[in-house]
Amino acid sequence: MSTDTDIPLRIRSALAEFLGRDVASIKPGDALRDDLGLDSLATIELLYRIEDAFDVEIPDTDLPSLVTVADVTTYIQRTAVKPPGSPSGTKG
Amino acid sequence: MTSRIVVTGLGVVSALGIGVRQFWDAALAGRSGVSKLSAFESMPMEAYRSQVAGQIHGFDVGQYIEGASAERVDRFAQLAMVATREALADSALQLDHEDPHRTGVIVGAGMGGMLIAEQEYHRVYEQLKPNRVVPNFIPMVTLNSASGALAIMCGAKGPNLTISTACSSSAHAIGLAREAIRTGRADVVIAAGADASIVPLTFGGFCSLRALSTSFNGFPEKASRPFSRTRDGFVMGEGAGTLVLESLAHARKRNARIYAEVAGYAATSEAHHMVVPREDGLEIAETMAMALRDARVRPAQVDYINAHATSTPIGDVVEIKAIKHLFKRRATEVAINATKSLLGHTLGAAGALAGIVCALTIDRGLIHPTINYDDPDPECALPGISGQAQERSVEVALLNAFGFGSNNASVVFKRFVP
């Protein structure tokens, strides 16, 4: 079960691994495109990994709202964390 | 060098109909060839983000071509064979009277034999019997199986080539067919485009790329909407188109009917990104400018543009930006349409089908509508784009086609004036 506290770090770690950078260099306020240099394809590749890691599916219509690292974190916290005993959303 | 190359035959296999007449009548009427995606056997179809496609339903190659040869190639090559048969009949070429080494075939194909590919991949991994891969797998899956099948069907012994540049493949096939004739390698070249890859893995791949429309799954005919504010990705299509190109001297000698002249061509790379165009549109503008220079035509002389316009949020804006940059005030006067609004995106077939539309537009003086253009995006809107068919004499037409891999093509067609 993911918890609220480890989601931000896991997302920053996933980004760090994807970008080949130190996790400390990735700030919640960083914009995926303008600060981290992810183009649209790279963003989709990253979100694919995050979908897998948190067992969520991010519909195309939600993509425009995911501008910063914090946006992704909030989105995953909202959609991935299920109440205790929930049968789904427990992967990872 | 032979300077003038003309189009003398056309053939179409499309989601709007099999045959040029069926396709063209439906196009002028603004009908959509897009429908709900057919089920992939036991695949849970609801798991696909996009559930619409421009499919050719009920296609049976045996209705059009006798014998086993057509049944032993993959669907994309079958579509190419049927389109080519029509184009040859339309051209009235008597191939048995031609020097076979002066007749070539150039096919544009983006994906290749994906039906057999997915079927056999699935089988070999599921059954773990590599010795049971069908013997015809390799000849069917290879990208050049369509050009091979066409050359065999036609007895064409000249250049037999396949161009694979994703969605611009068959625009290059037309351009390179022209060059093969201009440089004296052939008198006649059959230029075709074909793709048929609406199959579970490939369709899923385009879904994962977030390239396809997902907001109109309940309204398939609305999903392909180039230049519209609410466009949200392209619709995957399939089909084939064939143009018979020949030197003017050759066409004259046999008193052929001429649709149009292929007057210019440009091939460029943006050297930028595998799937995203440069947002300033400058490389697209340069590609169009190069093709017009090759045709010795000024931008102000262009009457009609068959836009690449796939209905993606970025692509349509970039193309219009490029058109405005190159054409300046003429951008507000030129007629523009998007054939993909009708068929979805037929990938490797798109350039050939667009070339056929250019030839018919010049020949008939009619511009097919861009359907679903009911809520124009202010960044794309131009006066020459219309949801209705337009009657207009077209002397010069420009075809745009852009492909993954940072690839651009433009082809210029002119009314044939003796």
What does this structure look like?
- The complex is a heterodimer of chains A (92) and B (418).
- Chain A is mainly α.
- Chain A has a single domain (6-80), classed as Orthogonal Bundle (Non-ribosomal Peptide Synthetase Peptidyl Carrier Protein, Chain A).
- Helix content of chain A is 45%, strand content 0%.
- Chain A has helices spanning 6-19, 40-54, 69-80.
- In chain A, helix 1 (6-19) crosses helix 3.
- The longest helix of chain A is centred in the middle third of the chain and has 15 residues, at 40-54.
- Chain A starts with 5 loop residues before the first helix and ends in a 12-residue tail after the last helix.
- Chain B has 418 residues and is α/β, with parallel strands linked by helices.
- Chain B has two domains: 5-253, Peroxisomal Thiolase, Chain A, domain 1, CATH 3.40.47; 264-414, Peroxisomal Thiolase, Chain A, domain 1 (3-Layer(aba) Sandwich), CATH 3.40.47.
- Helices cover 31% and strands 19% of the residues of chain B.
- In chain B, the strands form three sheets. In chain B, strands 1, 2, 5, 6, 7, 8, 9, 10, 11, 14 and 15 form an eleven-stranded mixed beta sheet that branches. Chain B has a two-stranded antiparallel ribbon with strand order 3-4.
- In chain B, a hairpin with a 2-residue loop joins strand 1 and strand 2 (17-18).
- The two termini of chain B are 18 Å apart.
- Classes of the chains: A mainly alpha (92), B alpha/beta (418).
- The interface between A and B is small, with 9 and 13 residues.
Order of helical and strand elements of chain A? HHH
Q: Any idea of the CATH class of the largest domain in chain B?
A: Alpha Beta
E-strand count of chain B: 15
Strand content of chain B: 15-25%
Shape, principal axes of CA atoms of chain B:
globular
Can you give the mean pLDDT of chain A? Answer: 84
Distance between the termini of chain B: 18 Å
Structural class of chain A: mainly alpha
* Secondary structure: number of strands of chain A: 0
Q: What Rg of chain B is obtained from the alpha carbons, in whole angstroms?
A: 20 Å
Give me the Rg of chain A, rounded.
13 Å
End-to-end span of chain A in angstroms? 7 Å
Low-confidence stretches of chain A: 83-92
Computed structural class of chain B = alpha/beta
Number of helices of chain A: 3
Largest interface, counted by CB within 8 Å of the partner chain's CB: A-B, 9 and 13 residues
The CATH architecture category of the largest domain in chain B equals 3-Layer(aba) Sandwich
Mean residue pLDDT of chain B: 97
Low-confidence stretches of chain B: none
